[in-house]
Amino acid sequence: MHSNKYSRGGVLIVGGSEQFRGALFMASFAARNALTALRTGTGYVTIAAPSHIIDLAGKVSPVFILRRLTGNTTQDLNTIASVRHNVLVLGPGLDGATSTKFLKRVLKAESGKIVIIDGAMLRFLKRNTRLISSNMILTPHDGEFGAFIGTSLKGASLNKRLKLVKTFAKGYKCTLVLKGHETIIAKSRKTKINRSKTPALATMGTGDVLCGMIAAYAASGMDTFESAYAGVRAHSVIGDMLFRKKGMHIVATDVIDAIPDVLKRFDKIDKKR
């Protein structure tokens, strides 16, 4: 019962660019909404991004902690280090202009925390595979994963996708979430398949929402595999519920708004604490 924002974990989201402004906020809002439904959810969310993104963030919502990135590697690393967090989301909205040196040093500094990789950061890791570690959760769709491993997954069977995911996760010792109608989650010898009942979530931005939800579960203390599966499963259940209400007319913000209504049934308060 006696908890505070720090005891409930923190998520730091580093990303954003002039071209992709919305992706950063989708991930942020998902993590923030997840805390309203889960007792062990995220206590606070910090956005670290270029000034034009931070200016927008202040207008979108007053609840986030905001940190400006200047483009100066040393200064920005100090900014990130000053933020209290146990989960880092790296990638939403980042573009190809982001410094390779900066990203390498961020990952090195975050070696003791869970790091969720999304978006353009997947392309960065393809060129720097030695940086992939056991504390990482990678969240590609079929196109991104196929480009990463050099194999087209267009029209691939579930068995083929499953085999490729298992091989990758075991080889790199990371947690891999291969998004799709049949989303595969794998780490080492553990594998889960989540079969969606509807394709209604196949719209832009919903993958960013999933990324934020996984971050919220990870901040609560779950390990990488558990966090990934919990996020995927909750995301899917919300999608099924929205499909019954809205049919094939769902957008990412619908998913964000529905998080508390779907997950509040799992709320518990430990009165001994």
Describe this protein with a few key phrases.
single chain, alpha/beta, UDP-N-acetylmuramoyl-L-alanine:D-glutamate ligase, nine-stranded mixed β-sheet, 46% helix
Characterization of this structure:
It is a single chain. This protein has 273 residues and is an alpha/beta fold. It has one domain (10-258): Ribokinase (UDP-N-acetylmuramoyl-L-alanine:D-glutamate ligase). 46% of the residues lie in helices and 16% in strands. A nine-stranded mixed sheet has the order 3-2-1-4-5-6-7-8-9, with helices on both faces. Strand 4 (87-90), helix 4 and strand 5 (114-117) form a beta-alpha-beta unit. The longest helix is centred in the C-terminal third of the chain and has 23 residues, at 224-246. It is globular. 46% of the residues are buried. The model is unreliable at 1-6 and 33-40 (pLDDT under 50).
Write down the CATH topology. Answer: UDP-N-acetylmuramoyl-L-alanine:D-glutamate ligase
Order of helices and strands: EHEHEHEHEHEHHEEEHHH
Determine the strand fraction and express it as a percent band: 15-25%
Task: Please identify the top-level CATH class.
Answer: Alpha Beta
Radius of gyration: 18 Å
In total, the number of strands is 9
CATH architecture: 3-Layer(aba) Sandwich
Structural class: alpha/beta
